Amino acid sequence: MLYYFLIFLMIIIGFIGVFFLLRSIVIIFSLFTSAPYVPLEKYLIKESTRFLSLKRGDRFVDIGSGDGRVVFWVAKNYPEVEYCKGIEISLLLNLASRFLRLFSCNKERIVFERRNAFKCDFRKENKVFIYLLKDTVDKLMPVLEKQLPSGAKVVSPLFTIDQKYEKSGDLSVKEVIFRGKIRKIYIWTKK
Ligand SMILES: C[S@@+](CC[C@H](N)C(=O)[O-])C[C@H]1O[C@@H](n2cnc3c(N)ncnc32)[C@H](O)[C@@H]1O
Hints:
Layout: H1 2-30, H2 42-50, E1 59-63, H3 69-77, E2 83-88, H4 91-101, E3 110-114, E4 127-130, H5 134-147, E5 153-157, E6 169-178, E7 181-190
Parallel strand pairs: 1-2, 1-4, 2-3, 4-5
Antiparallel strand pairs: 5-7, 6-7
Bound molecules: S-adenosylmethionine.
């Protein structure tokens, strides 16, 4: 009996090991591309999503969802949100998030799509999370400004949303302390 248990344990540990190894490989390789994958720390996910004021019927999207951690967080902590979507350009990361979705208790409200954000339609979503490089934020904001419905919110931890978007929305900056340092979170609400 103990023998079978040990084999079972080794298989599980093997699977976990392979998962983390693949994840590290994806992270390292992505650092050399124009779309690096750097997962956001849990504390900053929690603080940033708090500023989205998520409520019943909201439709959430994480643009550049990586392994889906933000989407899983929102689906778990905000059960009143209608759906939580993750858009990801990388095939491997999209597959990883789809795989993890299989084990989620909230899978019926979670969707992952492998797509380039610049070819997506965001007219249905009203709560948007972006943790992307400054250049990508700058390119994406005009798309969001045009497509999102009035009252929609965009939150961008660490990377600035340009002041020019004050014309079409309310822009605010919140500061949180993380590991002894001040971190800025940018929030834009479309007028
Ligand atoms: C910094 S990671 C953020 C991952 C996740 N949102 C998080 O906070 O942990 C940025 C992600 O955006 C993806 N990405 C970059 N450009 C994209 C684009 N044009 N369309 C979709 N995804 C993109 C990258 O592949 C990467 O996984």
